[in-house]
Design brief:
Elements lengths: L2 H9 L3 H13 L11 E5 L4 E6 L2 E6 L5 E3 L15 E5 L9 E11 L6 E10 L2 E9 L1
Antiparallel strand pairs: 1-2, 1-8, 2-3, 3-4, 5-6, 6-7, 7-8
């Protein structure tokens, strides 16, 4: 008698229920890793934008030159899928808490067009909070 069949008879369980339980347990996979860490972030009033990639993070506005920050791996919300919330620390001057938070949402509108984005963005830079939308690049 096969071990699995013998175990199911011994325990009084049907072979089908044990096999389906083992199959379900073995098919459970961890959440898929995000496809890419590249994002395009846009905000309005005033107009601003960011480019996030592993080569760096660049902040730009219509009235000043772009500011570059080194890429740092994002933090995610504890116990949540990695694609739900990303928090990037924007390292510049010592003792600054500049952050970019990208959060998956049902839809985000930039308020200037009809385009819907799958992520919202909150930027805290130089003690100013800006809100916008984001999409993968």
């Amino acid at each position: 008698m096969k071990p699995l069949l013998y175990l199911s008879v011994l325990l009084g369980l049907g072979t089908t229920s044990i096999i389906s339980h083992l199959t379900a347990a073995n098919s459970a996979q961890p959440p898929a890793a995000p496809r890419s860490e590249a994002f395009r972030v846009v905000g309005t009033e005033p107009f601003w934008g960011m480019s996030v990639s592993k080569s760096g993070i660049v902040y730009s506005t219509t009235d000043s030159k772009p500011r570059s920050f080194p890429y740092s791996a994002p933090m995610s919300a504890q116990g949540r899928p990695a694609d739900l919330v990303r928090v990037y620390r924007l390292q510049s001057k010592p003792n600054t808490n500049n952050l970019l938070v990208i959060k998956k949402v049902a839809a985000c509108s930039d308020s200037m067009s009809d385009k819907q984005y799958p992520y919202s963005a909150t930027l805290i830079l130089d003690n100013v909070v800006r809100e916008g939308c984001a999409e993968r690049r």
